[in-house]
Amino acid sequence: MANVSTSAISARHGAQRPRLRPTVDYATLVGVFGAFAVIGLAMVLGGSPESFVDLPAILIVIFGTALVTVVSFSLAEVARAGSIVWKTAVYHCEEPTIAAQQMLYLADVARRRGRLALQDTVREFRHNRFLHDAINMVIDGIPTEQLEQILTSETASMRHRHLRTAGVLRRAGEVAPAMGLIGTLVGLVQMLGNLDDPTTIGPSMAVALLTTFYGAVLANMVFTPLATKLERNSENETSVHRVYTLGAASISRQENPRRLEMLLNTGLPPGDRVSYFK
Amino acid sequence: MANVSTSAISARHGAQRPRLRPTVDYATLVGVFGAFAVIGLAMVLGGSPESFVDLPAILIVIFGTALVTVVSFSLAEVARAGSIVWKTAVYHCEEPTIAAQQMLYLADVARRRGRLALQDTVREFRHNRFLHDAINMVIDGIPTEQLEQILTSETASMRHRHLRTAGVLRRAGEVAPAMGLIGTLVGLVQMLGNLDDPTTIGPSMAVALLTTFYGAVLANMVFTPLATKLERNSENETSVHRVYTLGAASISRQENPRRLEMLLNTGLPPGDRVSYFK
Amino acid sequence: MANVSTSAISARHGAQRPRLRPTVDYATLVGVFGAFAVIGLAMVLGGSPESFVDLPAILIVIFGTALVTVVSFSLAEVARAGSIVWKTAVYHCEEPTIAAQQMLYLADVARRRGRLALQDTVREFRHNRFLHDAINMVIDGIPTEQLEQILTSETASMRHRHLRTAGVLRRAGEVAPAMGLIGTLVGLVQMLGNLDDPTTIGPSMAVALLTTFYGAVLANMVFTPLATKLERNSENETSVHRVYTLGAASISRQENPRRLEMLLNTGLPPGDRVSYFK
Amino acid sequence: MANVSTSAISARHGAQRPRLRPTVDYATLVGVFGAFAVIGLAMVLGGSPESFVDLPAILIVIFGTALVTVVSFSLAEVARAGSIVWKTAVYHCEEPTIAAQQMLYLADVARRRGRLALQDTVREFRHNRFLHDAINMVIDGIPTEQLEQILTSETASMRHRHLRTAGVLRRAGEVAPAMGLIGTLVGLVQMLGNLDDPTTIGPSMAVALLTTFYGAVLANMVFTPLATKLERNSENETSVHRVYTLGAASISRQENPRRLEMLLNTGLPPGDRVSYFK
Amino acid sequence: MANVSTSAISARHGAQRPRLRPTVDYATLVGVFGAFAVIGLAMVLGGSPESFVDLPAILIVIFGTALVTVVSFSLAEVARAGSIVWKTAVYHCEEPTIAAQQMLYLADVARRRGRLALQDTVREFRHNRFLHDAINMVIDGIPTEQLEQILTSETASMRHRHLRTAGVLRRAGEVAPAMGLIGTLVGLVQMLGNLDDPTTIGPSMAVALLTTFYGAVLANMVFTPLATKLERNSENETSVHRVYTLGAASISRQENPRRLEMLLNTGLPPGDRVSYFK
C-alpha cells in the first residue's frame, strides 16, 4: 500500500490538492472603505470638505477614546487588538469544507504511504501554523489523547484572545460617542460664553458638532462592525480548527479515512458536505 | 388492501386532497406598503412631496447601511438575504394543521396500496421540495433512522439560514439610523459653516434632516418588521418540517396511520388538532 | 353518605357558595382613562384643546403603528388581540383562593352525594367555560390522566395566546414612538422648506410635534401598561386554571377532599390559604 | 442542667443579650432628602425658586405616573407598596450576625433550662413578629419539618411581596420620565400655537420643561434608588429569616448549640462569623 | 533530602525567586489622567478654561450623585468603595503565572526540607496577606479540607466585595448623567424665566450645560471605566487566589510538586504555562 505514489492520489482529484490559504476578507475592506467613501463624497458634494477637519476635535475623540478604553483593559491587550483585527477580521480563512478536504487528503496519504509520508506535504502548510503543528505532532507520534488536548486548548486560547479583542472593540464603540458628546459640550460651552460676534456662532457650532460626528463615525463605521466581523470570523476559524483537530486525531489513531469523512460531515451544514471518496 | 383505489380514499374526505401551497403573506405586503402609503399621503397633503427626495441623502443612507452591514457579514450572506426574505417573509406556507392532514393522507395511501403507490402522488408536491424529497426517500426505501437524520439536519440548516438572515436585517435596522445621524451631522456642519444667507438655512436644514428621516423609515418600517416576521414564519416552517419528518418516518416504519395522527396531535395546539380518521 | 342534602353542605359555610365571577378590573380602566383625563385637563387649562387634534397626524401614528405591527404578526393575530385584551386585562377573574374554595365545595358535593350530583351544580358555572368543561369531563367519567392532559394543554394554549397578544402590544409600544418620530420629521422637513412667512413657523412646528405626542401617549399610556397588565392577569388566570385542574383530577380520582385542601394550599401564598374543613 | 440560671448564661457574654431591633436606614433618608436639598439649594441660588412650582405640571407628572402605574398592577398592590417601602427601605434590620448571636443565645437557654424556658424570653421579641412566631411554634412543640416548611414559606412570601413592590417602584421609575415628556410636549404645542407675544415664549417654555424636570427628579432621585434599596434590604432580611429558621429548627430538634453555630457560620461571610461558644 | 540547602533550590532558577508584588496598574492611571488632560487641553485651546468651573454645578453633580448612590447601598459600602478601587483597580497584582512559579518554589522547598522550612520564607510574603495566611495555615498543620474551605470562602468573600464595589461604581455611572440632566433642566428653567436681557442668555445656557458636561465626564471617564477595570482585575486576582489555594492544599497533602505543576497548568492559558521542573 505504501508504494502507491502521491501522484496516483492526486490523480483521483485531478491535479489539484485542496488548499486553504488565508485570503483578504473583501467584505470587511470594501465595507469600511466604501462607507468612508460615501461619507467623503457627501462632504465634497456639500462644497467645503476642509470644514470637516479640525485637529483638536480629532485629538479629543481619538485620544480620548483610546485612553478611556485602555482604562478598562491593559496596555498590552489594546496594543495586541490591532494585530488580531488584521489577522482575523481582514486577512483570514473561513472554509471548513476546504479544511475537511485537506484533512481527508492527508488522511488518504497517511493511509496509503504511512504516517511518515506526511513529512513531504507538511512543508506546504508552513503558512498555516495550527495545521503545521498538528501534522508535525502526528509525525512525531505524540499520543492521540495528548494531541487532542493540546490542539483543543490552543483553539480555546485563540477563541479567548479573539473574544477579548472583540470586547476591546465593543468598548471603544461605546466610548467613542461618549467622548464625542463630551467634546461637543466643551465646544458649546465655549461658544455660548462668547456670543458677542454673531457671525462666529455658526462656525463655532459646526466645530462643536465635529466631535459628535467623529464619535458616531468611529463607533458605527469602524469599531462596532469590526467587532461583529471578528466574532463571526473567529467562530468560522474555530470550526476550521475543530476539523483539523478531528482529522489529526483520526490520522494519529490510523483510522480509515472514510470514517473520518463521515465524522467531519456530521459537523458540516448539508450543502457544504464533502465527498472525497466516491 | 392494496386494491382499494385512490378515489375510495379521496372519497372519505370529499373530492379534496389537503394541499399546502406557499401563499403570499398579505400581512407583510399590506403592512409595509400600507405604512409607506400613509407616510406618502402625509407628504402629499403637506404640499411639496418633491422636497423629500434628495439623491445624496438617499445614497448616504442606503449605500452606507448596505456597506456597513456587509462588514459584519460576508457579501454572499447579504446577497442571499434578499431571496430568503422573499421566500420566507412574503411568500410562505405556515399551516402545520394542513401539513398534518397531508401526511395522514399519504400514510393512508401507503397503508392501503403500499409504499410504491406514493409514486403517483409525489408529483403533486414538486413545488414543495422538502416534502418531495422526504416522500422520494420513503419510496427509495432509505432506512428510517437515516431518513430522520437527513430531514432533521436539513431543517436545522434551513433554520440556521433564516436566523442568519434575520440577523442581517436586525443589524441593518441598527445601522440605518446611525447612518441617518451621520448624514444629518454632515449636513448640519455644512449648513453652520455657511450662515451668510439666512434664506438658505431652512432648506439646508431640511435636507440635513432627510438622512435621519430615511434612516428611521428604513429601520422601523422595513428592516425590523421584516426581521421579526422572518423569525416568526421560520418558526412556523420549522413546525411544518417537523410534521413532514414525523410523517415520513412513520410511513417508512409502516406504522398504523392512526398512531401517526395521535403523535402529530400532541405537537399541535388544541384548536388546530386534526381528526382524519373518524 | 349520598343522602346528605346539598343544603346541609351549604349550611356549613352559611348560605353562600363560593363564586368566581369575572369582574371588571377597575385598576385597568381607572388607570387608562384617568391618565387620559389628566392629560386632557392639562390641554384644556392651557387654553386651546383643539390645537391638539390634527387628522393627518392621527392617521400617521394610528394607521402607521397598526400597519407596521401587522407586518411582524399576522392579520388574524392582531385582530384577535383586541378581544383578548378585553377579556384578560379589563374583564377578568384573578382569585386562586376563591377557585380553591369552589373546588373544595364541588369535591365535598361529589364525596357526599356521588359524582353525578355535580350535574345539578354544573349549570352555575356556565359562564366559566374552563371549569364547566372540567366538571363535565368529570361527570362523563373521562379517565383522570386524559382529563389532566386535556386541561393542562388547554391552559398552556391559553397562556400562549395571552403571551402572543402581550407581544403584539409590546411591539405596538415600540412602533408607536418610531412612527411619531417619522411623522415629526415629515412635518419638520415641510416646515423648514417654507420659512417665507415667519408667523407660520410656530403652528407648523406645533403640528409636527403632535405625531411625537400621539406616539408617546399611545406607547406609554396604552400599549405598554396593557401589555404588563395582560401578562400579570394571565399569570393569575393560569394559577386559577391550575387549581381547577388539580381539583377536577382529585374529584375524578375520588380522593378525600381534605387531601385536595392540603394539595391546593401548598400552591397558595400563606395569607391566601383556604380552610374549608374546620 | 435545667437549674443553671439565665443570669449564668448572660454572664458569659457580659450583661448584654444580643438585640436585633429594626433601625432607621439613615443612608436612605440622608440620600433622598440630601439630594433634594442639593437641588433645592441650586434653585434658591439661581434666584427664583418659585418658578419651579407649577401646579398643572405637578398634577400631570404625579397623578399621571400613579394612574399609569396602577394599570400595570392592581390598586391593592400600589397601595401596599407605600407601607412596604417604609418598613423595608427606611426602617429595617439587616444584621445576620446579630440574628445568629440571638439564635445561639436562645439555643443555649433551651439547652440548659429546657424548651419551655423560652417562654420567659419570647416576650422580648414581640416587635419582631417572625422570630416571635418561630419561638412560639418551638414552645408549642410543632414538629420540626412542619415548622421549617411554615417559616420557609413565610419567608418566600415576604420576598415575593418585596420584589413585587420593587417592581411597582421600577415601573413608576419608567413611567415618570415618560409622563414628563408627554407633559412637555403638551406645553410645547400650546406655546408654539401662540407665538404672537415674544415675551411669553421664555416663561411658557420654562413651564413646559418643568414636567420633564419633575419626571427626571421622581424617577432618578426617588423611585429607582428606593427600588434598588428595597431589593438590597429584602435580600438582607431574607438572610436574617434564614438564620431564624435554621435556629428554630435546631432548637426544635434539641441539637447541640455548637452544631448550630457551625451551621450558621457556613452561611455568613468570613468577617461576620460569630463565635458564641469560646 | 531535607539537607538540600535553599540555595541549591534557588540555583536551579538562577539567583531569583519568583516574586509577586502588587504593582501600580499604569493603564488605569494613564487612561484616566490622560483623558482628563486631553479634555483640559481642549478647554485651554478654546480660550477660557475658567468658564468650565462653576461651583453650584459641581455641587449638584458630585453631591447629588454621591447622595443618590448612597440610597441604593449603605454608607459603609460607599465609603469602602474608595479603598477597594485603589487596591484593586490601581494598585494590584494580576499574574497567575508568577503565582504558579511561587507555589512551585514553595512546594519544592517543602518537599526537600520539610513543611517547617517554609517558616523561613513566609516572612517574604508579609505584604501578600492571602498567601501569608495560606502558608501559615500549612505550617500550623491545619487539615487540608479545612484549609481549602477557609481559603475558598475567603476568595468568594473578596470576589463578593469587589463585585459589590463595581456595582456601586456602575450605579454612580448611571446616576451622574441623570443628575447632570436635572441640573441642566434647573438652569434652563431659570434662564428661560429671565429672558429680559438677551446678553445673558448665552452665559446662562453655558452654565446650564455644565452639569450635563460634568455628569458625562464623571460617568464615561471615571465611574464606568473603573467599574470595568475592577471587574477585570478582580477576575485576575481570583485566578491568583485559586493558584494559591491549589498550591497550599497540595503542599499540605505533601504531594509531589510535579503533580502540582500539571494541576496548575491545566488552569493556565497555553502561552502562560509554567515549567518549573525541567
State the helicity of chain A in percent bands.
Answer: over 70%
Instruction: Tell me the overall shape of chain A.
Output: elongated
Q: Order of SSEs of chain A, N→C? A: HEEHHHEHHHHHH
Q: Give unreliable regions of chain A as ranges.
A: 1-16
- Give the class of chain A from helix and strand content and strand pairing: mainly alpha
Task: Tell me what portion of residues of chain A adopts beta-strand conformation.
Answer: under 5%
Using only C-alpha atoms, the radius of gyration of chain A works out to: 26 Å
Oligomer: homopentamer
Strand order, sheet with most strands of chain A: 2-3
The biggest sheet of chain A, with number of strands, parallel, antiparallel or mixed sense and barrel status, is: 2 strands, antiparallel
Largest binding interface between chains: A-B, 43 and 37 residues
Question: How many H/I helices of chain A?
Answer: 10
